[in-house]
Amino acid sequence: TDVRGRSIFGTFFHAPAPGALEVLHEAVVSVDEKGTISRVIRRGEPGYEPARASADVRLSDGCYLLPGFVDLHIHAPQYPQLGQALDEPLEVWLQKYTFPLEARYANTDFAQRSYEALVADLLSHGTTTALYFATVHQEATRLLVDICLEKGQRALVGKVVMDDPATCPDYYRDDSAQAALADTRAFIDYVRAHPNNGESRVLPVVTPRFIPSCTDESLMGLGKIAAECDCHVQTHCSESDWEHGFVIERHGVTDAESLDRFGLLTRRTVLAHGTFITGPDMDRIAQRGSAVAHCPLSNVYFSSAVFPLRAALARGVRVGLGTDISGGPSASLFDSVRMAISAARMLEIGVNPDLPPEGRGRPDSRIDTATAFHLATAAGGDALDLPIGQFTAGYHFDAMLIDTRVPEGTLGTVAILAESSPEDILQKILYLATKPNITKVWVGGRGVTP
Ligand code: GUN
Ligand code: FE
User: Fold this and answer.
1) Phi and psi dihedrals of 421, rounded to 5?
2) Whose CA is nearest to atom 8 of ligand 1?
3) pLDDT at 418 exceeding the cut of 90
4) I need a surface site. Which of 13, 309, 365, 435 has the fewest CB within 10 A?
């Protein structure tokens, strides 16, 4: 059901800053006709009683509202191979499995089936915004835009650029740098002029796959397009030893510095992984206002290392969370939240029991649950420079309703401990919620799940 022009009475969780969980207990959130939050009234504030009495929607006991999740890095075409081929290194996985799969999106019937299933799955997992890599194909990438608009997901979509014949297979690459740049411009125009995109729910993204797959000519041209068209940018950055080393070998500098030279580090740039970024890289990324999409599940398989999240945050880098489908084997950002906490903990304690405890890990690396929740919501919005991810006036009402009392799964254990605090309940939601608990999802105040 639509909540545009209506007000909702219930308990809301959000985390506007790292480590800062806010519980809006029995609050009233009003949504305007455009789907933007117009007013948040907490218990005891002036006007609370009349607002509560006149609320249009009342949440039942055991139900809570969370901001919709922001998936900051996902490869839409890789959805069909989710859970497969996770036993190879990145460079082998790309050539042996991933490029052949992505090449199949030349077939728009295949693309349609795959993309429809993906977008529906993400929405029902509470992912209200996704920053997508598509494929090199113009038609299939436009189809992904159409499907997001039709299903109501907020999305940022990029036609992938990979034009270097030295690294990309003949059967799957742009014909030339010029063709890749012309295609990127045509795609940007398509998204911006789309008849169903009046609210700009879908945005175009300049998308060099990563430096190893692009020529200098295409990288330079994409930097220009990003500036001229004032577009978001996404790419992979220092993901693995192989990839990090490849760029240093080719350009004599790290990914971050090289991308910066091409004009590709902007306030609206999202760098996937960043596992091996250096201290100076972090400072550079922070200074440009760019963000890192932390993909803790994928990093286990293809980075073979843990992203130093706390260090990056301390140096002022914006960081959000990505599933990195299908590098990460889950469509649910809940799994990324859980893994972000586990990975940070493993980085702190170290994993090699042969070493003495004091030599095992990296101090000050753990994060708390509220920080992981922040990364999946408000931080993702901030990374994208969009007003999403929190229940604050002026932000889009993108939200999910969690019902802890459905019989499926184990989140029902909340009700056994009657004394659970709201903080306890949020922890249980983040760790135990599964699809059946996500009973309603809204984007811009519009219901987007059946
Ligand atoms: N680097 C370049 N392409 C990819 C991809 O599809 N997935 C991951 N994880 N890393 C990449
Ligand atoms: Fe990726």
Assistant:
1) -80, 165
2) 327
3) no
4) 435
